[in-house]
Design goal:
The protein is mainly α. The chain has 19 helices and four strands.
Length: 379
């Protein structure tokens, strides 16, 4: 098949009809499947400030429902070894590949990645996120955000709700391609690659003392979390088919330029793990994925398109929440720039969900949004 010349958005249109076929059987229960406002747990502003990110995530019915859905979906992987590896990573998404990276190795890796153009405009002290132990994730997968502070799902549990939605989309596409074309696709690989596509967001997006997030650095032409995630699945010995499909989450490899970009992420992961990607069956050459291209990579890429909606809605909603915090809760300029507002924002979003709150605002106006926020946070 020739996918050259089709960009990320163009290929998305091809799969849109199939994505619409998400079956009810894939939905994780009433809190995610039904329309209308979800159940929330009201809390006082003074108490929210003292809550940890994990406390906030666990207090959210929707985050917990999303986690349950992910666990059940991963539990449906038929290959026992793969199922156990995926579950183990989600239970502790530690960057185990860092076990061999001491100060000297870190400096050598930084030098090599800079020389090969994988690292640009990143200071050596900012290369690799802070880490206490390669055997333990800095935070649970449950409490991590879905992206950076100004982007999508930037609240405790955001990576869980984001991953759950992407799994639904991926399985909807899987069913759609079977129904429309009678394709035979590797369901196990699709679930594994999508469930793990953001596995290192808990490491990259660490919560700061003021309730904000660490800034993400670029690596090999994309956000570092993606390249590190590909690195981790290689280090943990997942099948090449899963590793390659996961690498495609950020780009469809249909054109030569796009394929080289995906191959570059795998090549960078090879440098970080000391793996020869060609010998490991991860690449055919420095700029070529294993040939012929597998369909699972394209489906994984399509399934990771929650950002198309969630990024613009998030940016618009953040501005509204800041206004509400100032006018309805009396937060000062200093409060709005620190932990008090950040905690307020994190709790509102983990309880109310960005997309749900934005649709309320878009359809019923700011007054309805402010009323909903007051149902979540008691002044």
């Amino acid at each position: 098949m020739d996918f050259s010349g089709i960009d990320r958005r163009g290929f998305l249109k091809i799969g849109a009809a199939a994505g619409a076929l998400v079956a009810v059987s894939f939905l994780p229960g009433a809190t995610l499947a039904e329309g209308g406002p979800p159940e929330v747990r009201p809390a006082k502003l003074k108490d929210i400030v003292d809550m940890s990110p994990e406390d906030m995530a666990r207090a959210s019915a929707k985050v917990m429902a999303a986690q349950d859905y992910i666990q059940k979906t991963v539990g449906s992987i038929k290959d026992q070894a793969l199922r156990e590896k995926v579950a183990a990573i989600l239970a502790n998404p530690a960057p185990t590949f860092m076990a061999k990276v001491d100060g000297k190795v870190r400096a050598e890796l930084y030098k090599e990645l800079c020389a090969k153009g994988c690292l640009k405009d990143v200071a050596e002290q900012d290369f690799l996120p802070p880490l206490s132990s390669a055997a333990q994730s800095p935070q649970p997968f449950l409490s991590a955000p879905g992206s950076g502070w100004g982007s999508h799902h930037a609240y405790p549990g955001g990576v869980v709700t984001h991953t759950a939605l992407n799994l639904m989309s991926t399985l909807g596409l899987y069913e759609g391609y079977i129904a429309a074309y009678g394709l035979t696709l590797d369901r196990d690989a699709l679930i594994a690659s999508q469930a793990l596509h953001d596995l290192h967001k808990p490491w990259v997006f660490q919560w700061q003392a003021d309730g904000s997030l660490r800034n993400e650095m670029p690596l090999a032409g994309t956000g570092e979390h993606h390249t590190y995630g590909v690195t981790e699945v290689i280090a943990r010995g997942l099948p090449a088919s899963v590793c390659v499909a996961q690498a495609c989450a950020h780009e469809q490899p249909g054109g030569a330029k796009e394929e080289a970009l995906v191959a570059g992420w795998i090549g960078t992961a090879g440098i970080l793990t000391g793996t020869d990607p060609v010998k490991a069956g991860l690449l055919d050459s420095a700029e070529k994925l294993p040939q012929p291209l597998r369909f699972e990579g394209f489906v994984t890429h399509l399934g990771d398109h929650d950002w198309v909606v969630s990024v613009p809605t998030a940016k618009r909603l953040y501005a509204q929440l800041k206004e509400i915090a100032a006018t309805d809760y009396g937060l000062s300029a200093a409060d709005l720039a620190g932990r008090k507002f950040n905690s307020f924002r994190n709790y509102v979003l983990s309880q109310g969900m960005i997309e749900t709150l934005y649709v309320l605002y878009a359809t019923k106006g700011r007054e309805a949004l402010a009323k909903r926020v007051k149902e979540i946070v008691i002044a």
